[in-house]
């Protein structure tokens, strides 16, 4: 299983991928940090987070299986300086994605 994150900004796109620490679990945890550098507060931008399942069976071809996604407004992160929320993924009957984000200025 892996997670793909795409942050869309007016001037640039950033995309990162992370592999799950526990691939054979129904409750994978990533515990990874990513930094996106921006020139101004992204109050009109969103971050889109997708989860996929991939098979690594030898000799078999299995495409990525799309599991779920969430889209989060970055205005909440900027205004509150931090969020730590559980989101119910779109197009999913069960499961949650917990996201913690911080807005830091230098």
From TrEMBL:
Region (Disordered): 1-28
A GO term from the CC aspect: endoplasmic reticulum
Listed Basic and acidic residues bias regions: 12-28
Domain C2 residues, every copy: 1-87
Biased composition (Polar residues): 1-11
A Pfam family that the UniProt record links to this protein: C2
Domain of life: Eukaryota
Molecular-function annotations in GO: lipid binding
PROSITE patterns for this protein: C2
Protein name per UniProt: C2 domain-containing protein
